[in-house]
Write a structure and sequence with these properties.
Elements (H helix, E strand, L loop, with lengths): L2 H13 L4 H8 L5 H7 L7 H10 L4 H5 L14 H6 L2 H4 L2 H15 L6 H18 L6 H9 L3
Helix pairs in contact: 2-4, 8-9, 8-10, 9-10
Length: about 150
């Protein structure tokens, strides 16, 4: 299964606040078609399914198949679950949170986005930055993730 496809679909669903079932309906696919792709049950999804998903997510097939180096976990990184279960003070990253708020706020200017979208992006960018390098905001990821908001 193409993990890039899965990561792209999941990220775009999250930003657009759309459920698996809603995406399947919007794409005109049978029940569990998207779920099977996301879980790896569908090893080789058809081009028609990928095209329908891309249209429903308002992107191109190329967007869904493009590998983004800043999404991939590198060995030695903490998983999201590890980050979320660690004590906040262990990271001493209040500067990272402040910088993340500033970066996300600057990138949101003129977007006309909701508070929910802002907080979701803040959450995602902060966690991705902690995974990659707790000393700095992952601005490349922030730009990409926020660009998904229409």
């Amino acid at each position: 299964m193409n993990m890039t496809l899965v990561q792209q679909i999941e990220a775009r669903m999250k930003v657009q606040n759309i459920s698996v079932m809603a995406l399947e309906n919007k794409a005109g696919l049978k029940a569990h078609a998207v779920r099977n792709i996301l879980t790896g049950k569908s090893k080789r999804p058809s081009a028609l399914h990928v095209q329908a998903i891309a249209e429903a997510l308002r992107c191109t097939v190329k967007d869904l198949l493009t590998t983004l180096s800043f999404i991939q976990n590198e060995q030695g990184d903490f998983s999201r679950e590890e980050i979320l279960t660690k004590r906040y003070a262990q990271y001493s990253t209040t500067h990272l949170m402040e910088e993340t708020v500033e970066v996300v706020h600057a990138l949101f200017q003129g977007k006309g986005a909701t508070v929910r979208q802002f907080l979701l992006c803040l959450h995602e960018v902060y966690l991705r930055s902690l995974q990659k390098d707790p000393a700095t905001v992952n601005k490349e990821y922030a730009r990409w993730f926020i660009s998904l908001i229409d």
